[in-house]
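Entry:
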Amino acid sequence: MSILGSPQKGMNAARYIKLSLVLFFLIAVPLIWKENRYITTIFISALMFGIWGVMYDLQIGYGGLINFGFAGFICAGAYGSALAAHHYEINPWYCMLIGAAASGVLGFLTGVVTLRLKGIFVGLATWFLAEVLRLTISNTPGYTRGMLGLAVKPLPDMYGLNYSRAELLPYYYLLLAFVIIIFAIASLMVHSRIGLSFKAIREDQLATETLGLSATKYKLINFTTACFFTGLIGAFYAHYIGILTPDPTEFGVPRTVEVLTVAYVGGRGTLWGSILSGFLLIGFQEYFRGLGAWRLVMYGVLLITVMIYAPKGISSIKKYIW
């Protein structure tokens, strides 16, 4: 028994060591270079896109759910939180939960409407609903300020931490805590019976339903969970950035393409690959910032290259990374 058990213990120990190194890197680097706001900003952007990529991977990599309207759920979380704080004077900490709930409810309702569809039709339906939401916000300036821009309150101080926008580190470590919690929940979910159901439905929905599992039920669980956490990070983004406009580059197809690229480059069905991909692609984006819109073309080229030469994403070369 000890001979059989020792390799497993060794693998677990190695996994914990790798996890500790990653956490040390994420905690230490922004703190060491805390005077360099640019580095902290890059880390915040990389973590946001990384965890959005994780949620997209949960949908498409595990549930087989195509979501071309992903940016709409970011928008729902951001505006849900911002409007609650702006119009109803609710504490912004609670507003983030309101934003997450708004996105989760929208995800549930979208799922009820679309998840009986299959394949590309689900993606088109989610894209249509996301665009309806964005255009509704654009055309109701009396309530949402539309393209004029909605000023968003910063998070109040808590536990002696100053969340004014002059201080980036508190926002970074708050986001890091969210990322750790969301990633842990997603990992527990995909390694549970629910996760096995996701994979079974993804591989063969008809065969799974003949075994007595409700494909619609598990798709709704997947879609609603992913949208809830997407909205939570969208709410964080609203209070972090300080002003919202329903611009397509923020809450339209370009944003969805960026998140989709993060998930695909990281590797579908891995979760952790999206975090690594987030840092890679945000670094790539910042390096080529001067190219403007051409960066999206380069994103497309990078995505095609990865799909040809590393179909399982950069997670498939993890042994070389470590």
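The domain at 39-321 is CATH 1.10.3470 (ABC transporter involved in vitamin B12 uptake, BtuC).
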